């Protein structure tokens, strides 16, 4: 079995990257490493002949981009020539059945050494678990620019943390004591900012960010959150909620945003079958809080995961990408028809939700820490979506520390994936926010706004509400984009604003479009890149 630690700097984008699918799950070629290259040490003569004319840097199994039936048959390869893929498919066809070249743009990734079973450019020395939810969110594309900063603090207003734990030690503080809550705080903190590249556990989204922990009470004043904001915390995660509104708490949210702090909170796990889109939880329901709920991310099409429930003699689907519910069934048990979601499998949705993210199949660090178990979440939970969003915001602030807090929500929504056209979601339109979080695109937008290399693209979304504000040093291009009805857009660029094809800027009397060119705009600070040479890419 191949077990070699690769360094990201050991190869470049001029190399050829591709995926190969083997015919047999048991196939694992053996290699020996000499210098920077791998040499096949197995006994298959045809494979040896096909490989001998190429310099190979990586040849390893990965779960990345593999469908369920191909999870243990997919290989990631880095070599000096793209002809290797064709050579293997033609001359070692008894071993390989499919290949796919990786586009140049998709090579702009970074993976730490604890990136789970989908790791490609680095060996996984951490937990042997499937982190496909981070692949789906394109987090490695965000890490290409930044893995976080100790100067950026993520507040965790949930259960307590073990400050000596390897994932939190040296970068965490407990501001207020909180209960253990069955490890809830540890699980949330790990997702948002658990330390990465430490050959242990799994990486959090903003894994080089700092963490401040606090309690989750004082619902009427949110004084524990205000305290974090006053201590310099840029984003606060609240994986909790209650149904009572307090005007004093709303004013505290405004105070924190003015102080540069963004609050992320959950719409809660109450099933739609009981909430019917009418139940609002706070602080998620307060104005200027980024309210999150859950959706599925795993299988690209419902036909990939049709299951059968023997006791009821029915077919059903589970964990289908972009569906806001986890499970659904078929009218007349006809699996050729588009499924309808079971409302009981949909976490609470309503008009206050801003964005959704993966809620199923997320690594449960609390189980790993407290019981030594490698477990993933089984149900569509919102508590674990919030730290995915909070970690994304941490990366955004890490990349550009001067990013206005009031523009964070705009960037998250501009870069989200619109899911309105997903047929099973249509009965719930208007209650799942702008769509699905995409961490990679959000961080890249921040980079594009201030790098002055490529235009900032606002595209592929349809907004009929919300107030958007964006200030960009770089040129801005809008394409395949709609701002209608009550949507408000206040967009300022130092350079051009280009209105391209299929763009509709026609709000009603309650909306407004304000586009401005300001040549005097200046960057408030510089981009803080993981690798400064990225500016030369």
Automatic annotation (TrEMBL):
Keywords: Hydrolase, Protease, Serine protease. Pfam families: Peptidase_S8. InterPro entries: Peptidase_S8/S53_dom, Peptidase_S8/S53_dom_sf, Peptidase_S8_subtilisin-like. The keyword Hydrolase applies. The keyword Hydrolase applies. Gene3D superfamilies: Peptidase S8/S53 domain. Residues 169-424 form the Peptidase S8/S53 domain. The active site is at 158 (charge relay system), 184 (charge relay system), 383 (charge relay system). Belongs to the peptidase S8 family. PANTHER family: CEREVISIN-RELATED, PEPTIDASE S8. This is Peptidase S8/S53 domain-containing protein. It comes from Aequorivita vladivostokensis. The lineage of its organism: Bacteria, Pseudomonadati, Bacteroidota, Flavobacteriia, Flavobacteriales.
